[in-house]
Amino acid sequence: MNKTKRNLILSAAIINLINMVANLVIAILFCVDPEFYANILGNYLLIISYYSIYFVFIEVVAGIIASILLIYSVRKKGKYFRTSQKYYIAGLIIVIFAGGWIPWLLLFISMFIPDIIIINSASEIRHEERAEERASDEKRRKVEELRKLKEEGVITEEEFNKRLMDLL
Fold this sequence. Notes:
Layout: H1 3-32, H2 34-41, H3 53-73, H4 75-78, H5 85-98, H6 101-110, H7 122-152, H8 157-167
Helix pairs in contact: 1-2, 1-3, 1-6, 3-5, 7-8
């Protein structure tokens, strides 16, 4: 996965979590002493009333779920992003409806960044080649062992073919 896309998604999830916690704290403080906090924060708290505190809690829970879905979609440095895009889409939709505009904007930008790395660095290519060589050497060694066992008469032709198919 592209590091820029992954970082944008993680940033959106973290900013969304911070936004949700701030909304929850403000709603709780407003319920404790509405006049005092209304004077300090001004018009922002006019939207929070005793009747909408439940809406704030629902919004906070939805925002936390969205952040969890976004973080899960880029787990293991984005290795499984293609198989977990449904979590990314679900998190994006929830952020659109329950989150702030900054996480939404970051996720919108991340949609236009390709999710694959087209060019690997030379060290990554060498590392992948070495891993492939080790795997093929291991298979060759096991095939030779099977041939020796067959030639010595330890295993039959059917067993040899079965083990060879299992190995390959």
